[in-house]
Design brief:
The complex is a heterodimer of chains A (330) and B (352).
Chain A (H helix, E strand, L loop, with lengths): L10 E11 L11 E12 L4 E5 L6 H8 L7 E6 L2 E2 L5 H8 L2 E4 L13 H11 L5 H14 L16 H13 L5 E5 L7 H18 L2 E6 L2 H7 L2 E6 L2 E7 H6 L4 H9 L49 E4 L2 E3 L4 H4 L1
Parallel strand pairs in A: 3-8, 3-9, 6-7, 7-8
Antiparallel strand pairs in A: 1-2, 1-4, 4-5, 9-10, 10-12, 11-12
Chain B lengths: L2 H9 L8 E14 L2 E14 L3 E5 L6 H9 L7 E10 L3 E2 L5 H10 L1 E4 L3 H4 L6 H12 L4 H14 L5 H4 L9 H13 L5 E5 L7 H18 L2 E6 L2 H7 L2 E6 L2 E7 H6 L4 H8 L63 E2 L12
Parallel strand pairs in B: 3-8, 3-9, 6-7, 7-8
Antiparallel strand pairs in B: 1-2, 1-4, 4-5, 9-10, 10-11
Classes of the chains: A alpha/beta (330), B alpha/beta (352).
Chain lengths: 330, 352
């Protein structure tokens, strides 16, 4: 199991699959499905930030939603503090809802426009048993201070806030029940550069203050590198490489990660990156290539790559790679 | 902007435009919004040289897209209008005074534009072949056969596999990257002098972005189009452009060659932006805290007195809150090609 930390993992995911059935019409005899998440193993230690990067459609958001249990996995285990919550129904999940929270990408559509900020923050407190109204109010005001907005915003509505401020509200809401794990799904992608860095810093400060664990989902490798202790790279429903954040850039092993990093425009015109430009686009997850999913676009692919599925193996301590030809192509 | 610089630019003779395909002078774009009248673009001037890629970088609401729409004559009506200034296109003339009929000829033929979201800029009920053909037919008299042939050539040129088959595809049948290729094919169908690209790769994945950027550079070399590349992504700016305008709250705050800008940003806003992006290529000392620019972009209806960046500037000093600095060469290098709008680089007036 990928775990570089000596502490007991807070979250342990193994063999997680989420397949969505495809409707081919009632006369179709095939039972096809979109294999959004197709066998993912990962762990997150208390206080650790694990980054999850990949391109659109790789299954990173589906994975995040399954961990928060907004969605039910088809197969596999999601062990939170030792308890497998993968198959839990709503009632059994309730105690875990407060432990695992989520922050969404779009701060404009993820806040209820008809609730004042104060009511929005007090609602989960009430649902989870904080009976005293004055106490709830005090906690909501404290949350606003925590995310750098100030209690004076208590009676305002979401539309009165800018994008960055709304993302702060989203963070305040996620923090309301003192969770241990927060899934951050592209929390800064919709924000301007100068605001993005403010939010990243805020997330880091909060992490230190409350010993939070993050699953930080993003398509932006530089943000993930900066935010996280470890990074997992996902391609077509599977993790293809996972390593400590600093190491992934220095020692990039999987051909997909190499291409992803080389495609990242470096904000320095004097830096010449040798670009690996991948041909074509990501294949459909309904019908992923057999064997290694990346074999159709991999510059190093050999015929055998499309027959056997490579395992995610520990190539170096703490550095996992899913490629059967790794020794040959280095 | 000071009156002095305005007159100098107004008197510039046509000879000064040689080598410039486009010249924007003292352009001001006003938007009438619910709460009042705002200058989305406030007196900006720049030139686009033949064969050059000029970058315009800035955050949401800084006026970069409005600048592009003003050049295209596509400002949102009835709320937007050009209230001042001129846009001169080499070989065509002044665009701001042109009638809509003539402007239609200019668009596509001389200047074309690609947008951020290819799905919303393509018509979902027509095939991509039809839409490219339409662009060609509008501007050139060719037989039906010839138009189709040309459209297929364009699809091939932008790297779409099986162009004959894709000619009859509808936009929804293509991936995001392929749709952006179709947009580029359409934009370049009439070999325009200028292509305006407004965040053309923002909605795309990085590996697809790399493909599109490479394609744009190849086509630029083949067709000889000059490009205005609008983006918020400094990485893309570094990779694609030769010269950069940095915009903030409706004005240009810095103009420089791309290498100079990244090596030594003069304006505190540019410097702040460059410092606040996380970088993967810097190995040593992954800093725990990112640099931030405090505060938020000012309300365009209530701009701060003096410099527009003064409320957020780490180097703010007295003159900044009194007078708005002009965009001009820095005192350190009065004859240099760089321009900056900041009192740190220019002696402020002694008194008002």
């Amino acid at each position: 199991m990928p775990d570089t930390n000596t502490r007991e993992p807070l979250l342990e995911v193994s063999g997680l699959k989420r397949h969505f059935p495809v409707d081919d019409g009632i006369f179709s005899r095939q039972n096809r499905s979109v294999k959004a998440v197709d066998g993912v193993d990962l762990t997150i230690a208390p206080g650790e930030a694990l980054g999850l990067v990949g391109e659109s459609g790789c299954g990173k958001t589906t994975l995040g939603r399954n961990i928060v249990r907004l969605d039910k996995p088809t197969e596999g285990v999601i062990r939170f503090e030792g308890v497998d919550i993968a198959g839990f129904e709503d009632r059994e999940l309730k105690p875990y809802r407060r432990q695992i929270q989520i922050i969404f990408q779009n701060p404009f559509s993820s806040l209820n426009p008809r609730l004042t900020v104060g009511n929005m923050l007090m609602e989960p407190l009430m649902l989870h048993g904080m009976k005293d109204r004055a106490e709830r109010r005090a906690r909501a005001q404290e949350l606003l201070e925590l995310v750098g907005l100030g209690a004076q915003h208590f009676d305002r509505y979401p539309h009165e806030f800018s994008g960055g401020q709304r993302q702060r509200l989203g963070i305040a809401r996620a923090l309301a029940l003192r969770p241990k794990l927060i899934v951050c799904d592209e929390p800064v992608s919709a924000l301007d550069v100068s605001i993005q860095s403010q939010i990243i810093n805020l997330l880091r400060e909060l992490q230190e203050e409350f010993d939070l664990s993050y699953l930080f989902i993003s398509h932006d490798l530089s943000v993930v590198e900066h935010m996280c202790d470890r990074v997992a790279v996902m391609y077509l429903g599977r993790i293809v490489e996972m390593a400590p954040a600093g190491e992934l850039y220095r020692k990039t092993y999987h051909p997909y990660t190499r291409a992803l990093l080389s495609a990242l425009p470096v904000p320095d015109p004097t830096v010449e990156v040798e670009e690996i430009i991948l041909e074509g686009s990501v294949p459909s997850p309904v019908n992923p290539p057999p064997g290694c999913h990346f074999s159709t676009r991999c510059p190093f692919a050999k015929p055998e790559c499309s027959t056997a599925t490579p395992e995610l193996r520990e190539f170096e301590p703490g550095h996992f790679v899913r490629c059967s030809r790794l020794e040959e192509i280095l | 902007m000071t009156a002095a610089t305005q007159t100098v630019q107004a008197q510039a003779s046509p000879a000064d435009h040689r080598g410039d395909v486009l010249s924007v002078d003292n352009l001001r774009v006003e938007l009438r919004v619910e709460k009042g009248l705002l200058a989305a673009v406030d007196d900006i001037s720049f030139k686009l040289k033949q064969g050059e890629t000029l970058g315009i970088v800035g955050e949401s609401g800084c006026g970069k897209s409005m600048t592009a729409l003003a050049i295209m004559g596509l400002l949102p009506r009835p709320i937007g209008r050009i209230s001042q200034g001129s846009i001169t296109l080499d070989g065509v003339g002044e665009l701001t005074k042109m009638r809509e009929g003539s402007m239609k000829q200019v668009r596509g033929n001389h200047i074309s534009m690609i947008f951020q979201e290819p799905m919303t800029s393509l018509n979902p009920v027509f095939t991509v072949g039809f839409q490219i053909s339409e662009a060609i037919r509008t501007h050139e008299r060719l037989s039906g056969e010839a138009v189709k042939k040309r459209a297929i050539e364009m699809l091939e040129m932008v790297g779409i596999p099986l162009p004959e088959m894709r000619y009859s595809s509808y936009p929804h049948q293509l991936s995001g990257g392929m749709r952006q290729r179709v947009m580029i094919a359409m934009a370049l169908a009439c070999r325009p002098q200028i292509m305006l690209a407004d965040e053309p790769t923002t909605a795309l994945d990085v590996t697809i972005q790399a493909q599109i950027l490479k394609l744009m550079n190849r086509l630029k070399a083949e067709i000889g189009t000059s490009i205005i590349f609008i983006t918020h992504d400094l990485g893309v700016i570094a990779k694609m452009t030769q010269r950069v305008l940095v915009m903030y709250a409706g004005v240009v705050v810095e103009e420089a060659a791309v290498r100079d800008l990244f090596k030594k940003p003069l304006h505190p806003y540019t410097a702040g932006l460059l410092k606040s992006i996380p970088r993967v290529d810097r190995e040593a000392g992954r800093q725990r805290t990112l640099h931030t620019i405090k505060g938020v972009v000012p309300n365009m209806l209530a701009l701060p007195r003096g410099c527009r960046f003064s409320d957020r500037c780490p180097d703010v000093h007295e003159p900044c809150r009194k007078w708005e600095p002009p965009l001009a060469a820095a005192d350190e290098a009065p004859d240099g090609p760089r321009r900056v709008r900041c009192w740190l680089h220019r002696k402020p007036p002694t008194d008002a």
